[in-house]
Amino acid sequence: MPPSPQTLPALLSKIRTALPASIPKSAAYILPASTLTALGHPNLLGPLFLHVTGHSSTTATSHHDQHGIPPPPPPSPPRPASPEETRAVSLHLRDTLLKEWTLIGIPLVITAVASLGAAEREAGLFPPLPSSPPSASSYALGPQSELSPRYASPDLNLSPNTDVHARGVSHIVTLYRQHLPAIMATWGSHEADFRWLEESVIYGAFLSDREVLSELETSLITVSGIMAQGLKGPSLWHLRGLRRLGVSKGDVEAVVRVIGECVKWAGGRVTGATGAEGEADDWVSWVGEVESEV
Fold first, then answer.
1. Where does the secretion signal sit in this chain (predicted)?
2. Distance, CA of 98 to CA of 208 (rounded, Å)
3. Of 122, 124, 100, nearest to 110 (Cα)?
Protein backbone atom coordinates (compact mmCIF):
# COMPACT_ATOMS: atom_id res chain seq x y z
CA MET A 1 0.00 0.00 0.00
CA PRO A 2 1.48 3.39 -0.97
CA PRO A 3 2.10 5.84 1.87
CA SER A 4 -0.66 8.33 2.57
CA PRO A 5 0.05 12.07 2.37
CA GLN A 6 -2.25 12.41 5.39
CA THR A 7 0.47 10.95 7.60
CA LEU A 8 3.27 13.15 6.24
CA PRO A 9 2.95 15.69 9.09
CA ALA A 10 3.78 13.03 11.68
CA LEU A 11 6.84 11.93 9.69
CA LEU A 12 8.09 15.49 9.25
CA SER A 13 7.58 16.21 12.94
CA LYS A 14 9.65 13.16 13.85
CA ILE A 15 12.39 14.26 11.44
CA ARG A 16 12.56 17.78 12.90
CA THR A 17 13.00 16.29 16.36
CA ALA A 18 15.67 13.81 15.27
CA LEU A 19 17.95 16.14 13.31
CA PRO A 20 20.98 17.43 15.25
CA ALA A 21 21.72 21.14 15.51
CA SER A 22 24.72 20.89 13.17
CA ILE A 23 22.47 19.95 10.26
CA PRO A 24 20.71 22.81 8.39
CA LYS A 25 17.03 23.24 9.29
CA SER A 26 16.20 22.85 5.60
CA ALA A 27 17.19 19.19 5.95
CA ALA A 28 13.82 18.60 7.64
CA TYR A 29 12.22 18.74 4.19
CA ILE A 30 15.20 18.17 1.87
CA LEU A 31 15.93 14.71 3.31
CA PRO A 32 12.36 13.36 3.00
CA ALA A 33 11.97 14.98 -0.43
CA SER A 34 15.11 13.32 -1.74
CA THR A 35 14.51 9.97 -0.03
CA LEU A 36 10.85 9.60 -0.98
CA THR A 37 11.52 10.52 -4.60
CA ALA A 38 14.33 7.96 -4.82
CA LEU A 39 12.06 5.36 -3.22
CA GLY A 40 9.60 5.79 -6.09
CA HIS A 41 7.08 8.14 -4.46
CA PRO A 42 7.61 11.37 -6.45
CA ASN A 43 3.92 12.29 -6.19
CA LEU A 44 4.47 13.09 -2.52
CA LEU A 45 6.55 16.18 -3.33
CA GLY A 46 3.48 18.38 -3.76
CA PRO A 47 1.83 17.39 -0.45
CA LEU A 48 5.20 17.74 1.30
CA PHE A 49 5.64 21.27 -0.02
CA LEU A 50 2.13 22.28 1.03
CA HIS A 51 2.62 21.02 4.57
CA VAL A 52 6.07 22.52 5.03
CA THR A 53 4.86 25.95 3.87
CA GLY A 54 1.54 25.74 5.71
CA HIS A 55 -0.47 26.26 2.53
CA SER A 56 -3.48 24.17 1.61
CA SER A 57 -4.86 23.07 -1.72
CA THR A 58 -7.82 25.16 -2.85
CA THR A 59 -9.13 22.07 -4.68
CA ALA A 60 -9.07 19.75 -1.68
CA THR A 61 -12.24 17.75 -1.13
CA SER A 62 -13.64 16.00 1.90
CA HIS A 63 -13.80 12.21 1.87
CA HIS A 64 -16.11 9.96 3.92
CA ASP A 65 -15.91 6.29 4.74
CA GLN A 66 -18.51 3.71 3.70
CA HIS A 67 -20.76 4.75 6.61
CA GLY A 68 -20.67 8.41 5.60
CA ILE A 69 -18.47 9.37 8.54
CA PRO A 70 -15.75 11.90 7.71
CA PRO A 71 -12.21 10.96 8.70
CA PRO A 72 -10.59 12.70 11.66
CA PRO A 73 -8.97 16.00 10.70
CA PRO A 74 -5.23 15.83 10.01
CA PRO A 75 -2.84 17.58 12.40
CA SER A 76 -2.92 21.34 12.05
CA PRO A 77 -0.27 22.51 9.59
CA PRO A 78 2.22 25.19 10.59
CA ARG A 79 1.25 28.81 10.04
CA PRO A 80 1.29 29.76 6.36
CA ALA A 81 4.79 30.76 5.37
CA SER A 82 5.45 34.28 4.19
CA PRO A 83 5.94 34.79 0.44
CA GLU A 84 9.70 34.94 1.01
CA GLU A 85 9.71 31.72 3.05
CA THR A 86 7.48 30.00 0.49
CA ARG A 87 9.82 30.98 -2.34
CA ALA A 88 12.80 29.71 -0.36
CA VAL A 89 11.24 26.27 0.21
CA SER A 90 10.15 26.11 -3.43
CA LEU A 91 13.67 26.94 -4.63
CA HIS A 92 15.20 24.43 -2.20
CA LEU A 93 12.96 21.64 -3.48
CA ARG A 94 13.61 22.65 -7.08
CA ASP A 95 17.36 22.54 -6.52
CA THR A 96 17.02 19.22 -4.71
CA LEU A 97 15.45 17.73 -7.82
CA LEU A 98 17.89 19.46 -10.19
CA LYS A 99 20.67 17.71 -8.31
CA GLU A 100 18.91 14.42 -7.62
CA TRP A 101 18.28 13.57 -11.28
CA THR A 102 22.02 12.86 -11.52
CA LEU A 103 21.54 10.15 -8.89
CA ILE A 104 18.19 8.51 -9.70
CA GLY A 105 17.36 9.50 -13.29
CA ILE A 106 14.98 11.91 -14.97
CA PRO A 107 11.60 10.05 -14.97
CA LEU A 108 11.17 10.07 -11.18
CA VAL A 109 12.37 13.65 -10.94
CA ILE A 110 10.09 14.95 -13.71
CA THR A 111 7.15 13.25 -11.97
CA ALA A 112 8.16 14.95 -8.72
CA VAL A 113 8.40 18.35 -10.46
CA ALA A 114 4.89 17.88 -11.86
CA SER A 115 3.59 17.09 -8.36
CA LEU A 116 5.32 20.18 -6.98
CA GLY A 117 3.98 22.38 -9.77
CA ALA A 118 0.43 21.08 -9.30
CA ALA A 119 0.58 21.79 -5.56
CA GLU A 120 1.81 25.34 -6.14
CA ARG A 121 -1.05 26.01 -8.53
CA GLU A 122 -3.67 24.39 -6.30
CA ALA A 123 -2.56 26.59 -3.41
CA GLY A 124 -2.86 29.72 -5.56
CA LEU A 125 0.88 30.37 -5.51
CA PHE A 126 1.36 30.17 -9.29
CA PRO A 127 -0.97 30.88 -12.23
CA PRO A 128 -3.32 28.01 -13.14
CA LEU A 129 -3.26 26.05 -16.38
CA PRO A 130 -4.02 27.08 -19.03
CA SER A 131 -2.76 30.56 -18.30
CA SER A 132 -3.24 33.74 -20.27
CA PRO A 133 -0.18 35.98 -20.68
CA PRO A 134 0.85 36.92 -17.13
CA SER A 135 -0.20 40.34 -16.00
CA ALA A 136 -0.67 40.06 -12.25
CA SER A 137 2.08 39.99 -9.66
CA SER A 138 -0.07 38.62 -6.83
CA TYR A 139 1.35 35.10 -7.05
CA ALA A 140 3.91 34.30 -4.35
CA LEU A 141 6.04 32.34 -6.82
CA GLY A 142 5.73 34.89 -9.61
CA PRO A 143 3.54 35.17 -12.72
CA GLN A 144 5.65 32.85 -14.90
CA SER A 145 8.59 30.47 -14.82
CA GLU A 146 11.99 31.95 -15.66
CA LEU A 147 15.29 30.23 -16.42
CA SER A 148 17.75 30.53 -13.54
CA PRO A 149 20.59 32.93 -14.43
CA ARG A 150 23.23 30.26 -13.80
CA TYR A 151 21.77 28.15 -16.61
CA ALA A 152 21.25 31.11 -18.96
CA SER A 153 24.85 32.26 -18.57
CA PRO A 154 27.10 32.03 -21.65
CA ASP A 155 29.83 30.94 -19.22
CA LEU A 156 28.12 27.57 -18.72
CA ASN A 157 30.71 25.57 -20.66
CA LEU A 158 30.86 21.83 -19.95
CA SER A 159 34.08 21.19 -21.85
CA PRO A 160 37.16 19.96 -19.95
CA ASN A 161 39.49 22.60 -18.50
CA THR A 162 36.75 25.18 -17.98
CA ASP A 163 35.60 26.89 -14.79
CA VAL A 164 32.62 24.54 -14.47
CA HIS A 165 34.88 21.51 -14.91
CA ALA A 166 37.38 22.86 -12.36
CA ARG A 167 34.58 23.44 -9.85
CA GLY A 168 33.40 19.86 -10.33
CA VAL A 169 36.89 18.43 -9.89
CA SER A 170 37.41 20.43 -6.70
CA HIS A 171 34.14 19.15 -5.26
CA ILE A 172 34.88 15.52 -6.13
CA VAL A 173 38.37 15.70 -4.63
CA THR A 174 36.94 17.15 -1.40
CA LEU A 175 34.62 14.15 -1.02
CA TYR A 176 36.74 11.29 -2.39
CA ARG A 177 40.35 12.40 -1.81
CA GLN A 178 42.84 9.55 -2.26
CA HIS A 179 40.11 7.04 -3.12
CA LEU A 180 39.20 8.77 -6.40
CA PRO A 181 41.81 7.31 -8.81
CA ALA A 182 41.05 3.73 -7.77
CA ILE A 183 37.30 4.27 -8.19
CA MET A 184 37.66 5.76 -11.67
CA ALA A 185 40.09 3.03 -12.69
CA THR A 186 37.30 0.46 -12.27
CA TRP A 187 35.58 1.99 -15.31
CA GLY A 188 38.13 0.47 -17.69
CA SER A 189 37.91 1.60 -21.31
CA HIS A 190 34.94 3.84 -20.43
CA GLU A 191 36.84 5.95 -17.90
CA ALA A 192 37.52 9.04 -20.04
CA ASP A 193 33.90 9.65 -21.05
CA PHE A 194 32.47 8.90 -17.62
CA ARG A 195 35.15 10.98 -15.94
CA TRP A 196 34.02 13.94 -18.08
CA LEU A 197 30.39 13.19 -17.16
CA GLU A 198 31.22 13.16 -13.45
CA GLU A 199 33.55 16.16 -13.44
CA SER A 200 31.80 18.51 -15.88
CA VAL A 201 28.12 17.59 -15.74
CA ILE A 202 27.13 15.71 -12.58
CA TYR A 203 29.47 17.54 -10.22
CA GLY A 204 30.53 20.53 -12.33
CA ALA A 205 27.12 21.80 -13.42
CA PHE A 206 24.93 20.42 -10.65
CA LEU A 207 26.28 18.91 -7.43
CA SER A 208 28.99 21.56 -6.91
CA ASP A 209 26.62 24.45 -7.62
CA ARG A 210 25.94 26.42 -4.41
CA GLU A 211 23.69 29.13 -5.82
CA VAL A 212 20.73 27.78 -3.80
CA LEU A 213 21.82 24.86 -1.61
CA SER A 214 25.05 24.61 0.36
CA GLU A 215 27.69 21.92 -0.01
CA LEU A 216 26.34 20.18 3.09
CA GLU A 217 22.72 20.33 1.93
CA THR A 218 23.78 18.86 -1.41
CA SER A 219 25.61 16.03 0.34
CA LEU A 220 22.43 15.20 2.25
CA ILE A 221 20.69 14.81 -1.12
CA THR A 222 23.38 12.51 -2.50
CA VAL A 223 23.50 10.32 0.61
CA SER A 224 19.73 9.93 0.90
CA GLY A 225 19.15 9.49 -2.83
CA ILE A 226 21.75 6.74 -3.04
CA MET A 227 20.92 4.96 0.24
CA ALA A 228 17.25 4.79 -0.76
CA GLN A 229 18.34 2.72 -3.76
CA GLY A 230 20.13 0.22 -1.52
CA LEU A 231 23.53 0.84 -3.13
CA LYS A 232 26.09 0.16 -0.41
CA GLY A 233 29.30 1.09 -2.23
CA PRO A 234 28.28 4.59 -3.33
CA SER A 235 26.53 5.12 0.02
CA LEU A 236 29.82 4.47 1.82
CA TRP A 237 31.61 6.97 -0.41
CA HIS A 238 29.15 9.73 0.44
CA LEU A 239 28.88 8.91 4.14
CA ARG A 240 32.64 9.33 4.17
CA GLY A 241 32.11 12.58 2.27
CA LEU A 242 29.81 13.90 5.00
CA ARG A 243 32.48 13.20 7.59
CA ARG A 244 35.04 14.99 5.43
CA LEU A 245 32.78 18.03 5.33
CA GLY A 246 33.11 18.19 9.11
CA VAL A 247 29.90 16.48 10.22
CA SER A 248 30.55 14.42 13.36
CA LYS A 249 30.17 10.65 13.37
CA GLY A 250 27.17 10.87 15.70
CA ASP A 251 25.45 13.46 13.53
CA VAL A 252 26.02 11.41 10.36
CA GLU A 253 24.45 8.47 12.18
CA ALA A 254 21.47 10.69 13.04
CA VAL A 255 21.09 11.60 9.35
CA VAL A 256 21.12 7.91 8.42
CA ARG A 257 18.41 7.23 11.01
CA VAL A 258 16.26 9.97 9.48
CA ILE A 259 16.68 8.40 6.05
CA GLY A 260 15.70 5.09 7.63
CA GLU A 261 12.57 6.65 9.12
CA CYS A 262 11.54 7.88 5.67
CA VAL A 263 12.10 4.43 4.17
CA LYS A 264 10.15 2.78 6.99
CA TRP A 265 7.28 5.27 6.66
CA ALA A 266 7.09 4.69 2.90
CA GLY A 267 7.10 0.92 3.29
CA GLY A 268 10.35 0.50 1.39
CA ARG A 269 11.15 1.13 -2.21
CA VAL A 270 8.55 0.79 -4.94
CA THR A 271 9.32 -2.31 -6.97
CA GLY A 272 9.82 -2.11 -10.70
CA ALA A 273 10.01 -4.79 -13.35
CA THR A 274 10.00 -8.32 -11.91
CA GLY A 275 10.26 -10.55 -14.96
CA ALA A 276 7.04 -12.28 -13.95
CA GLU A 277 5.07 -14.29 -16.49
CA GLY A 278 2.81 -12.01 -18.51
CA GLU A 279 4.56 -8.80 -17.47
CA ALA A 280 5.75 -8.03 -21.01
CA ASP A 281 2.22 -8.71 -22.29
CA ASP A 282 0.96 -6.01 -19.95
CA TRP A 283 3.52 -3.58 -21.37
CA VAL A 284 2.40 -4.43 -24.90
CA SER A 285 -1.16 -3.51 -23.91
CA TRP A 286 0.05 0.00 -23.07
CA VAL A 287 0.59 0.58 -26.80
CA GLY A 288 -3.14 0.24 -27.41
CA GLU A 289 -3.92 2.63 -24.59
CA VAL A 290 -2.20 5.51 -26.38
CA GLU A 291 -3.28 4.63 -29.92
CA SER A 292 -6.19 7.07 -29.92
CA GLU A 293 -3.79 9.89 -29.07
CA VAL A 294 -1.28 9.25 -31.87
1. none
2. 12
3. 100
